[in-house]
Amino acid sequence: MTSPRIAIAGAGLGGLACARVLQLHGVDVTVFEQEPAAGARPQGGSLDMHADTGQAALRTAGLHDEFRALARPEGQQMRAVDPLTCEVILDEIPEDGAEFRPEIDRGDLRGLLLGSLTPGTVHWGRSVADVTEGPRIIFGDGTTEEFDLVVGADGAWSRVRRALTGVRPGYSGVTFAEFGLDDADRRHPALAALTGQGTMMAKRGRRALCAQRNSNGHIRCYAIYYAAEDERPGLLERYAGWHPDLLAFLHEHDGEITHRPLFVLPVPHAWTHTPGLTLLGDAAHLMPPLGVGANLALLDGTELATAIATAPALDDGVLAYEAGMLPRSIETAKGCAEGLHHLLSDDHPAGRDAAA
Protein backbone atom coordinates (compact mmCIF):
# COMPACT_ATOMS: atom_id res chain seq x y z
CA MET A 1 0.00 0.00 0.00
CA THR A 2 1.27 3.46 -0.89
CA SER A 3 2.12 5.56 2.14
CA PRO A 4 -0.24 8.54 2.50
CA ARG A 5 1.14 12.01 1.87
CA ILE A 6 0.80 13.83 5.19
CA ALA A 7 1.67 17.49 5.74
CA ILE A 8 1.80 19.25 9.09
CA ALA A 9 1.52 23.04 9.07
CA GLY A 10 3.56 24.41 11.97
CA ALA A 11 6.69 23.25 13.80
CA GLY A 12 5.40 23.92 17.30
CA LEU A 13 5.29 21.32 20.03
CA GLY A 14 2.13 19.56 18.85
CA GLY A 15 3.13 19.37 15.20
CA LEU A 16 6.60 18.08 16.02
CA ALA A 17 5.22 15.47 18.44
CA CYS A 18 2.84 14.27 15.74
CA ALA A 19 5.68 14.01 13.21
CA ARG A 20 7.88 12.15 15.70
CA VAL A 21 5.29 9.44 16.41
CA LEU A 22 4.37 9.07 12.73
CA GLN A 23 8.04 8.45 11.96
CA LEU A 24 8.30 5.93 14.80
CA HIS A 25 5.57 4.00 12.97
CA GLY A 26 7.28 4.34 9.61
CA VAL A 27 4.80 6.87 8.20
CA ASP A 28 6.19 9.60 5.95
CA VAL A 29 5.43 13.17 6.97
CA THR A 30 6.56 16.67 6.08
CA VAL A 31 6.40 19.66 8.43
CA PHE A 32 6.12 23.14 6.93
CA GLU A 33 7.17 26.08 9.11
CA GLN A 34 7.07 29.76 8.21
CA GLU A 35 10.04 30.69 10.43
CA PRO A 36 13.34 30.64 8.53
CA ALA A 37 15.21 28.49 11.06
CA ALA A 38 14.81 26.76 14.40
CA GLY A 39 16.46 29.60 16.31
CA ALA A 40 14.76 32.45 14.48
CA ARG A 41 13.01 33.76 17.61
CA PRO A 42 12.81 33.09 21.36
CA GLN A 43 10.42 30.27 22.17
CA GLY A 44 8.83 31.69 25.31
CA GLY A 45 8.88 30.71 28.97
CA SER A 46 8.75 27.64 31.13
CA LEU A 47 6.15 24.88 30.81
CA ASP A 48 4.88 22.47 33.44
CA MET A 49 4.53 19.03 31.88
CA HIS A 50 1.65 17.14 33.49
CA ALA A 51 2.10 13.42 34.08
CA ASP A 52 -1.25 12.46 32.56
CA THR A 53 -1.02 14.60 29.41
CA GLY A 54 2.29 16.14 28.35
CA GLN A 55 4.49 13.50 29.96
CA ALA A 56 2.22 10.72 28.68
CA ALA A 57 2.68 12.12 25.18
CA LEU A 58 6.45 12.23 25.59
CA ARG A 59 6.41 8.57 26.65
CA THR A 60 4.48 7.73 23.50
CA ALA A 61 7.11 9.65 21.53
CA GLY A 62 9.91 7.68 23.22
CA LEU A 63 11.41 10.86 24.69
CA HIS A 64 10.47 10.77 28.35
CA ASP A 65 13.95 9.92 29.64
CA GLU A 66 15.47 12.76 27.63
CA PHE A 67 12.76 15.08 28.94
CA ARG A 68 13.54 14.15 32.55
CA ALA A 69 17.21 15.00 31.99
CA LEU A 70 16.19 18.55 30.99
CA ALA A 71 13.28 19.11 33.38
CA ARG A 72 13.33 20.97 36.69
CA PRO A 73 11.24 19.21 39.36
CA GLU A 74 12.01 22.04 41.80
CA GLY A 75 10.08 24.32 39.45
CA GLN A 76 6.85 22.81 40.78
CA GLN A 77 7.06 25.16 43.77
CA MET A 78 4.05 27.50 43.92
CA ARG A 79 4.17 30.60 46.11
CA ALA A 80 1.37 33.12 46.75
CA VAL A 81 2.20 36.56 48.15
CA ASP A 82 -0.05 39.23 49.63
CA PRO A 83 0.17 42.22 47.25
CA LEU A 84 -0.02 44.84 50.01
CA THR A 85 2.26 43.34 52.68
CA CYS A 86 4.41 40.99 50.53
CA GLU A 87 3.75 38.30 53.14
CA VAL A 88 4.03 34.76 51.78
CA ILE A 89 0.55 33.32 52.31
CA LEU A 90 1.07 30.01 50.51
CA ASP A 91 4.25 28.10 49.72
CA GLU A 92 3.78 24.69 48.10
CA ILE A 93 7.20 23.03 47.92
CA PRO A 94 7.36 19.75 45.97
CA GLU A 95 8.38 16.68 47.92
CA ASP A 96 11.57 14.87 46.94
CA GLY A 97 10.86 12.70 43.91
CA ALA A 98 7.60 14.48 43.05
CA GLU A 99 7.39 14.74 39.26
CA PHE A 100 3.72 15.23 38.49
CA ARG A 101 4.39 18.51 36.66
CA PRO A 102 8.07 19.43 36.48
CA GLU A 103 9.05 22.53 34.52
CA ILE A 104 11.01 22.71 31.28
CA ASP A 105 11.85 25.67 29.06
CA ARG A 106 9.74 25.65 25.91
CA GLY A 107 12.86 26.10 23.78
CA ASP A 108 14.53 23.06 25.35
CA LEU A 109 11.45 20.91 24.76
CA ARG A 110 11.11 22.07 21.17
CA GLY A 111 14.80 21.35 20.61
CA LEU A 112 14.33 17.84 21.98
CA LEU A 113 11.48 17.16 19.57
CA LEU A 114 13.31 18.66 16.59
CA GLY A 115 16.39 16.57 17.31
CA SER A 116 14.29 13.40 17.32
CA LEU A 117 13.09 13.81 13.72
CA THR A 118 14.65 12.50 10.54
CA PRO A 119 16.85 15.28 9.08
CA GLY A 120 14.95 17.29 6.50
CA THR A 121 11.51 16.61 7.99
CA VAL A 122 10.95 20.30 8.72
CA HIS A 123 10.92 22.63 5.72
CA TRP A 124 11.84 26.03 7.13
CA GLY A 125 10.70 29.27 5.55
CA ARG A 126 7.63 27.60 3.99
CA SER A 127 4.56 29.51 5.13
CA VAL A 128 1.10 28.06 4.50
CA ALA A 129 -0.99 30.86 2.99
CA ASP A 130 -4.14 28.86 2.31
CA VAL A 131 -5.58 25.35 1.98
CA THR A 132 -8.06 24.45 -0.74
CA GLU A 133 -9.86 21.29 -1.90
CA GLY A 134 -7.63 18.33 -2.56
CA PRO A 135 -6.42 19.13 0.01
CA ARG A 136 -3.93 21.48 -1.63
CA ILE A 137 -1.57 23.78 0.25
CA ILE A 138 -0.91 27.17 -1.26
CA PHE A 139 2.39 28.41 0.10
CA GLY A 140 3.41 31.98 0.71
CA ASP A 141 5.56 32.01 -2.42
CA GLY A 142 2.58 30.99 -4.57
CA THR A 143 3.61 27.36 -5.15
CA THR A 144 1.19 24.54 -4.36
CA GLU A 145 1.32 20.88 -3.29
CA GLU A 146 -1.40 18.27 -2.79
CA PHE A 147 -1.56 15.86 0.14
CA ASP A 148 -3.83 13.15 1.49
CA LEU A 149 -3.99 14.88 4.87
CA VAL A 150 -3.11 18.39 6.02
CA VAL A 151 -2.80 18.79 9.79
CA GLY A 152 -3.23 22.30 11.13
CA ALA A 153 -0.72 22.70 13.93
CA ASP A 154 -0.23 26.35 13.02
CA GLY A 155 -1.38 28.01 16.19
CA ALA A 156 -3.77 30.79 17.11
CA TRP A 157 -4.19 32.27 13.64
CA SER A 158 -4.23 28.94 11.80
CA ARG A 159 -4.65 29.04 8.04
CA VAL A 160 -5.73 25.40 8.08
CA ARG A 161 -8.51 26.23 10.58
CA ARG A 162 -9.71 28.92 8.20
CA ALA A 163 -10.27 26.22 5.57
CA LEU A 164 -11.99 23.87 8.02
CA THR A 165 -14.18 26.03 10.28
CA GLY A 166 -13.60 29.69 9.40
CA VAL A 167 -13.70 30.55 13.11
CA ARG A 168 -11.29 33.23 14.34
CA PRO A 169 -10.17 33.88 17.93
CA GLY A 170 -11.68 36.77 19.84
CA TYR A 171 -10.18 39.04 22.48
CA SER A 172 -10.79 37.73 26.00
CA GLY A 173 -10.67 41.13 27.69
CA VAL A 174 -7.41 40.23 29.44
CA THR A 175 -3.88 41.35 28.58
CA PHE A 176 -0.58 39.81 29.64
CA ALA A 177 2.36 42.22 29.86
CA GLU A 178 5.55 40.15 29.67
CA PHE A 179 9.04 41.11 30.83
CA GLY A 180 12.05 39.44 32.41
CA LEU A 181 15.01 39.48 34.75
CA ASP A 182 18.34 38.14 33.48
CA ASP A 183 20.93 36.48 35.73
CA ALA A 184 18.44 37.05 38.54
CA ASP A 185 20.27 35.37 41.43
CA ARG A 186 23.27 37.64 40.94
CA ARG A 187 21.75 40.86 39.58
CA HIS A 188 18.34 40.80 41.35
CA PRO A 189 18.88 38.59 44.44
CA ALA A 190 15.93 39.95 46.46
CA LEU A 191 13.51 39.34 43.58
CA ALA A 192 14.99 35.92 42.95
CA ALA A 193 14.49 35.00 46.62
CA LEU A 194 10.90 36.25 46.52
CA THR A 195 10.17 34.21 43.40
CA GLY A 196 11.52 30.97 44.84
CA GLN A 197 12.37 28.01 42.61
CA GLY A 198 9.05 27.88 40.77
CA THR A 199 6.25 30.40 40.36
CA MET A 200 5.28 33.34 42.56
CA MET A 201 1.82 34.91 42.26
CA ALA A 202 0.18 37.99 43.77
CA LYS A 203 -3.32 39.21 42.90
CA ARG A 204 -5.70 41.99 43.90
CA GLY A 205 -8.38 44.14 42.30
CA ARG A 206 -8.68 42.21 39.00
CA ARG A 207 -4.91 42.36 38.56
CA ALA A 208 -2.23 39.74 39.05
CA LEU A 209 1.56 39.68 38.98
CA CYS A 210 3.41 36.46 38.29
CA ALA A 211 7.14 35.66 38.33
CA GLN A 212 8.36 32.31 37.05
CA ARG A 213 11.78 30.66 37.14
CA ASN A 214 13.24 29.61 33.82
CA SER A 215 16.61 27.97 33.29
CA ASN A 216 19.96 29.79 33.14
CA GLY A 217 19.06 32.19 35.94
CA HIS A 218 16.24 33.89 34.02
CA ILE A 219 12.95 34.91 35.63
CA ARG A 220 10.03 35.59 33.31
CA CYS A 221 7.34 37.92 34.67
CA TYR A 222 3.75 38.63 33.69
CA ALA A 223 1.45 41.48 34.71
CA ILE A 224 -2.10 40.27 34.04
CA TYR A 225 -5.12 42.55 33.97
CA TYR A 226 -8.40 43.45 32.29
CA ALA A 227 -8.01 46.13 29.60
CA ALA A 228 -9.32 47.23 26.24
CA GLU A 229 -7.58 45.40 23.41
CA ASP A 230 -5.57 48.43 22.28
CA GLU A 231 -4.96 49.85 25.77
CA ARG A 232 -1.33 50.23 26.87
CA PRO A 233 -1.50 51.59 30.43
CA GLY A 234 1.54 52.36 32.54
CA LEU A 235 2.05 49.34 34.75
CA LEU A 236 3.34 51.32 37.73
CA GLU A 237 0.14 53.33 37.73
CA ARG A 238 -1.99 50.23 37.30
CA TYR A 239 -0.30 48.52 40.25
CA ALA A 240 -0.17 51.62 42.49
CA GLY A 241 -0.52 50.75 46.16
CA TRP A 242 1.13 47.34 45.88
CA HIS A 243 4.09 46.56 48.13
CA PRO A 244 7.41 48.12 46.98
CA ASP A 245 9.09 44.70 46.89
CA LEU A 246 6.57 43.58 44.26
CA LEU A 247 6.72 46.84 42.33
CA ALA A 248 10.48 46.25 42.11
CA PHE A 249 9.74 43.63 39.45
CA LEU A 250 8.35 46.46 37.30
CA HIS A 251 11.25 48.80 38.12
CA GLU A 252 14.17 46.40 37.70
CA HIS A 253 13.20 44.34 34.66
CA ASP A 254 15.64 43.94 31.77
CA GLY A 255 14.61 44.94 28.27
CA GLU A 256 11.21 45.97 26.98
CA ILE A 257 7.74 45.06 28.19
CA THR A 258 5.73 43.13 25.60
CA HIS A 259 1.96 43.57 25.77
CA ARG A 260 0.06 40.46 24.68
CA PRO A 261 -3.74 40.81 24.40
CA LEU A 262 -5.12 37.36 25.16
CA PHE A 263 -7.16 35.82 22.33
CA VAL A 264 -9.21 32.64 22.67
CA LEU A 265 -11.45 30.49 20.50
CA PRO A 266 -15.15 30.29 21.37
CA VAL A 267 -16.29 27.43 23.59
CA PRO A 268 -17.25 25.01 22.21
CA HIS A 269 -15.14 25.03 19.08
CA ALA A 270 -15.74 21.94 16.93
CA TRP A 271 -16.21 21.05 13.28
CA THR A 272 -17.88 18.60 10.97
CA HIS A 273 -15.36 15.95 9.99
CA THR A 274 -13.80 16.80 6.64
CA PRO A 275 -11.62 14.15 4.98
CA GLY A 276 -8.11 15.45 4.36
CA LEU A 277 -8.10 18.12 7.09
CA THR A 278 -7.79 18.20 10.86
CA LEU A 279 -6.41 20.40 13.64
CA LEU A 280 -4.43 20.06 16.83
CA GLY A 281 -3.18 22.29 19.64
CA ASP A 282 -4.01 26.00 19.59
CA ALA A 283 -5.35 25.70 16.05
CA ALA A 284 -8.07 23.43 17.45
CA HIS A 285 -8.64 24.86 20.94
CA LEU A 286 -6.93 28.17 21.72
CA MET A 287 -7.42 28.71 25.48
CA PRO A 288 -6.11 31.05 28.18
CA PRO A 289 -2.45 30.18 28.97
CA LEU A 290 -3.07 28.52 32.33
CA GLY A 291 -0.76 25.53 32.12
CA VAL A 292 -2.63 23.15 29.84
CA GLY A 293 -2.11 24.36 26.25
CA ALA A 294 1.30 22.81 25.59
CA ASN A 295 0.28 19.62 27.37
CA LEU A 296 -2.81 19.23 25.20
CA ALA A 297 -0.91 20.05 22.01
CA LEU A 298 1.57 17.26 22.73
CA LEU A 299 -1.23 14.84 23.58
CA ASP A 300 -3.18 15.81 20.46
CA GLY A 301 -0.14 15.28 18.27
CA THR A 302 0.81 11.88 19.62
CA GLU A 303 -2.80 10.62 19.69
CA LEU A 304 -3.42 11.72 16.10
CA ALA A 305 -0.23 10.04 14.90
CA THR A 306 -0.98 6.82 16.78
CA ALA A 307 -4.53 6.72 15.43
CA ILE A 308 -3.32 7.25 11.86
CA ALA A 309 -0.63 4.60 12.17
CA THR A 310 -2.91 1.94 13.66
CA ALA A 311 -6.19 2.49 11.80
CA PRO A 312 -7.12 0.45 8.72
CA ALA A 313 -7.43 3.63 6.65
CA LEU A 314 -6.14 7.18 6.98
CA ASP A 315 -9.56 8.79 7.42
CA ASP A 316 -10.56 6.19 10.02
CA GLY A 317 -7.60 7.28 12.11
CA VAL A 318 -8.47 10.96 11.84
CA LEU A 319 -12.08 10.24 12.79
CA ALA A 320 -11.00 8.27 15.84
CA TYR A 321 -8.67 11.08 16.92
CA GLU A 322 -11.32 13.78 16.57
CA ALA A 323 -13.85 11.69 18.47
CA GLY A 324 -11.59 11.74 21.52
CA MET A 325 -9.90 15.12 21.17
CA LEU A 326 -12.91 17.37 20.60
CA PRO A 327 -14.89 16.49 23.76
CA ARG A 328 -11.70 16.69 25.84
CA SER A 329 -10.72 20.07 24.47
CA ILE A 330 -14.21 21.52 24.93
CA GLU A 331 -14.32 20.45 28.56
CA THR A 332 -10.81 21.76 29.21
CA ALA A 333 -11.57 25.06 27.50
CA LYS A 334 -14.57 25.56 29.78
CA GLY A 335 -12.32 25.00 32.80
CA CYS A 336 -9.72 27.43 31.49
CA ALA A 337 -12.31 30.14 30.95
CA GLU A 338 -13.37 29.74 34.57
CA GLY A 339 -9.72 29.63 35.65
CA LEU A 340 -9.00 32.97 33.99
CA HIS A 341 -11.86 34.53 35.97
CA HIS A 342 -10.55 32.96 39.17
CA LEU A 343 -7.05 34.23 38.46
CA LEU A 344 -8.27 37.83 38.40
CA SER A 345 -10.94 37.55 41.07
CA ASP A 346 -10.45 38.60 44.68
CA ASP A 347 -13.03 35.94 45.62
CA HIS A 348 -10.49 33.19 45.00
CA PRO A 349 -7.11 32.73 46.72
CA ALA A 350 -3.87 33.13 44.82
CA GLY A 351 -1.93 30.00 44.11
CA ARG A 352 -2.08 26.96 41.91
CA ASP A 353 -5.89 26.59 42.01
CA ALA A 354 -6.31 30.10 40.62
CA ALA A 355 -4.57 29.03 37.43
CA ALA A 356 -5.86 25.47 37.19
UniProtKB/TrEMBL annotation:
<keyword id="KW-0547">Nucleotide-binding</keyword>
<keyword id="KW-0503">Monooxygenase</keyword>
<comment type="subunit">
    <text>Monomer.</text>
</comment>
<feature type="binding site">
    <location>
        <position position="282"/>
    </location>
    <ligand>
        <name>FAD</name>
    </ligand>
</feature>
<feature type="binding site">
    <location>
        <position position="41"/>
    </location>
    <ligand>
        <name>NADPH</name>
    </ligand>
</feature>
<dbReference type="InterPro" id="IPR002938">
    <property type="entry name" value="FAD-bd"/>
</dbReference>
<dbReference type="InterPro" id="IPR036188">
    <property type="entry name" value="FAD/NAD-bd_sf"/>
</dbReference>
<comment type="similarity">
    <text>Belongs to the aromatic-ring hydroxylase family. TetX subfamily.</text>
</comment>
<keyword id="KW-0285">Flavoprotein</keyword>
<feature type="binding site">
    <location>
        <position position="106"/>
    </location>
    <ligand>
        <name>FAD</name>
    </ligand>
</feature>
<dbReference type="Pfam" id="PF13450">
    <property type="entry name" value="NAD_binding_8"/>
</dbReference>
<comment type="function">
    <text>An FAD-requiring monooxygenase active on some tetracycline antibiotic derivatives, which leads to their inactivation. Hydroxylates carbon 11a of tetracycline and some analogs.</text>
</comment>
<protein>
    <recommendedName>
        <fullName>Flavin-dependent monooxygenase</fullName>
        <ecNumber>1.14.13.-</ecNumber>
    </recommendedName>
</protein>
<keyword id="KW-0560">Oxidoreductase</keyword>
<dbReference type="Pfam" id="PF01494">
    <property type="entry name" value="FAD_binding_3"/>
</dbReference>
<keyword id="KW-0963">Cytoplasm</keyword>
<keyword id="KW-0274">FAD</keyword>
<keyword id="KW-0521">NADP</keyword>
<feature type="domain" description="FAD-binding">
    <location>
        <begin position="148"/>
        <end position="310"/>
    </location>
</feature>
<feature type="binding site">
    <location>
        <position position="48"/>
    </location>
    <ligand>
        <name>FAD</name>
    </ligand>
</feature>
<dbReference type="InterPro" id="IPR043683">
    <property type="entry name" value="TetX_monooxygenase"/>
</dbReference>
